[in-house]
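**User:**
Everyone, produce one record:

**Assistant:**
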Amino acid sequence: MRIVFKTDYMQDIRPWKDGYQLSLYLILLAIVTAAPWWLDDFYLGELTNVLIWAIAGLGLMILTGHTGQASLGHAAFLAVGCYANVVLIEAGVPFLLAFPVAGLLTGIVGATVAIPALRLHGIYLAIFTLALSVLMDDIIVLAEPITGGVAGKYLGGVEIFGHLVDRWATPAPFFWLVLAVAVVVTLGYINLLRAPLGRSFIAVRDSEVSAQAMGVDIARTKTISFALSCAVTGLAGALMGMFAGAFNNETFSVVISIQLLMMIVIGGLGSIHGAFLGAIVIGFLPQFLSISKEYAAAIFGGNTVAIPGLEFGIFGMILIAFILFEPMGLYGRWLKIRTWFELFPFYRKDMFKRQKSYLKTERLR
């Protein structure tokens, strides 16, 4: 068992506990960076897809996991980021400028949406954002001169410092681009949680009445949370459009929003690790099911015809299982396992017992 003795405040708020944990993260980053040399193009593409999902999950985690505002409409903001990026590139704007501007525009849209949503809570906020996701489909079709309507848009490779970055022609550079964005977003997220703004997010999530009593501006905090969440989601949408190549109004459907919410719940709400763990499940489960059907057909005979609704049915069963048996998600389960080994034989199940009652202050809402 390792025990870290903290001797000053800066040691308490730094992103990693000690040099050992930092070295583990650096080793993991080195292994992932070298993926193009030990993975073929197919699995490299799947890993790239997982990273894009993780970026989108980090965007939703800011709003839902750390501010406590449920959203079922983040597919709309994925679409805004995707179309903003491709429209800017078609207008002649370099990718290195168009990409962050697409995220910024999506953040502005998110802040605008937050204004009428400030007084909504729980299921009402989820329904409001769900309506946005449904409405985005019609907006894309009606804005055909800009979005291409039902025919959609096509985005090939982009040039960065004179080098072609394309999902199909140059999968390795595209993977490194996505990895770089994921690392930058993750580091920004970590520092956000260490800042007063990030702690305000958590205070609003735990109790709005108590946070307001401590001087937190609830409306301002929620608006900034929406803006930051949508900006990160817009970056993920831009990368998702580049990964897909061709996209239209059906690409960013309500199903994507539901998958995003499922992803962070399965991975673990309120943790950065949970976004990545949930992305692994969402990204690799379809391929796992496909491979499993082929093996089952080879062993037991029969065909490999796709079963309608199988993927979403399994997603639903996994989500229900986590809600019933492990509400803290995959990362929560890992924390329990790690704590068991660290404290054995003094570990007690009550250490992670769920709080079954609301704060009395929250009943005033």
